[in-house]
Design brief:
The chain is an alpha/beta fold and 422 residues long. It is built from 16 helices and 12 strands. Helix 3 links the parallel strand 1 and strand 2. Helix 1 packs antiparallel against helix 11 and helix 12 crosses helix 13. It is globular, with a radius of gyration of 22 Å.
Length: 422
């Protein structure tokens, strides 16, 4: 059995490169706007928003004020921009109060004023201001049900927008007629900026009718107030022709694709032929694991004419329908499913992790597998299939010491996956 240390180090270097490319310090300075005649107010939300605010403040040489909300533990020191920390993925009161304050800050602005919105993944849960008639507790209950439903991020955000007083362009509406520049670190498949943090400053193509369909599709039990709000459909999100969006611009400054390309460069320099399958792969994590195992086995059996080892790289956001007692975690569930399907195949290694450093509800970025992963588990009486069935992949990888733990990375371009094939 081969020693896997070289492959583990390479996969970790690729993951680190993917994260580093998306760091605010590497992508904000090139997109700094010119100072306005009037006031400059910085607002923002997301797991990377505090780090984004810190870099923006450092590179801004004019008067400045603002407020951004980020996840607990993801803060960064600023002198002029207030940083508020709140809960993610299930909202709490801190996020609700911060969202209300953001709206209040934007009242009474003029055409001479500039609003800079710093938006990254995670902002949807952090900007948890319910629509009128819905309580925070009721919206929190719906969010919990969504997280367990297996709904893809696009459907989750559609429903979130239509239960919100700030998402779906409504933050930009509050700033009208001021100019609004939004800098986005994208964590969504296809870099749809209307989906990042539920698009608080951009137009939303989804409707109340679609939100009602999502409730029915996943049989989500919602409070009566939510049913009534969705049925009334009186506060639609902003559409592209809304006059309140006429003086706004959104720029994607970091994306999953750019991070995958950075990782591919590391693989190539190590003698592997990089193959980027895509940055928008979705679906149930365990099913994606089965498909990826089939691709890996095919590549191992037939390879390339040059016999060059390859690195299969992908990104996107899979989902986990939590039916067991485990904590879920889409990257680790993908990996455990992959390992089971590979069944100790020689010469195949893989790593999967969330670039924000948090996979699901655990402060763990992800994990890695080698040809000996299943053997290690069975030696300590852990059944891989039972762990997968129980959505308990986090404890599985913790038991065999194969976790990837980074702490908060202060950026977020979604999931990173690599399969090395010798």
């Amino acid at each position: 059995m081969q020693n896997s240390e070289k492959q583990i180090q390479l996969m970790r270097a690729m993951f680190d490169a993917a994260v580093e490319t998306a760091m605010p310090s590497n992508c904000i300075p090139a997109h700094m706007p010119a100072p306005p005649k009037g006031r400059t107010i910085v607002v923002g939300a997301g797991k990377a928003s505090a780090a984004m605010a810190q870099v923006f403040e450092k590179n801004w040489h004019a008067p400045l004020e603002g407020l951004v909300v980020t996840r607990y533990g993801h803060g960064a020191a600023c002198k002029k921009i207030e940083i508020v920390e709140a809960a993610h993925p299930v909202p709490d009161d801190a996020g609700t109060h911060a969202a209300a304050r953001l709206l209040k800050m934007l009242e009474g602005l003029s055409q001479d004023d500039l609003v800079v919105a710093l938006i990254s993944g995670g902002g949807s849960a952090l900007l948890s201001l319910p629509a009128i008639g819905i309580t925070v507790e009721e919206k929190r209950a719906v969010n919990k049900a969504l997280l367990k439903s297996g709904a893809p991020i696009g459907e989750m955000n559609c429903l979130r927008k239509h239960l919100s007083a700030i998402k779906g362009g409504k933050l930009a509406a509050a700033a009208y007629p001021a100019r609004v520049i939004t800098l986005v670190i994208s964590d969504v498949p296809g870099d749809n900026l209307a989906a990042v943090a539920s698009g608080p400053t951009v137009a939303d193509p989804t409707t109340f009718a679609e939100a009602r369909q999502i409730i029915a599709k996943y049989e989500i039990d919602v409070p009566a107030s939510v049913t009534a709000h969705l049925a009334a459909a009186q506060d639609e999100t902003l559409k592209p022709d809304d006059i309140r969006l006429a003086n706004t611009k959104a720029i994607c400054i970091a994306s999953p694709q750019k991070s995958l390309e950075a990782a591919a460069a590391i693989a190539k320099s190590a003698g592997y032929e990089p193959i980027i399958l895509g940055d928008a792969i979705e679906g149930e994590a365990r099913e994606v694991g089965i498909v990826m195992a089939g691709i890996a086995i095919q590549a191992k059996r037939f390879g390339q004419p040059s016999k060059t080892p390859c690195a299969i790289i992908s990104g996107g956001e899979t989902t986990v329908t939590v039916r067991g007692e485990g904590a879920g975690g889409r990257n680790v569930e993908f990996l455990l499913s992959l390992a089971i399907k590979l069944n100790c195949a020689e010469g195949i290694h893989a790593l999967a992790g969330d670039t924000d450093g948090v996979d699901g509800a655990r402060e763990v970025a992800g994990a890695y597998i080698t040809p000996t992963t299943l053997e290690k588990a069975r030696k300590i009486k852990i059944d891989p299939w039972a762990s997968l069935s129980n959505n308990d992949a986090h404890n599985f990888f913790q038991s065999i010491n194969s976790q990837i733990i980074t702490g908060p990375t202060l950026t977020n371009v979604n999931d990173f996956r690599v399969i090395l094939i010798e």
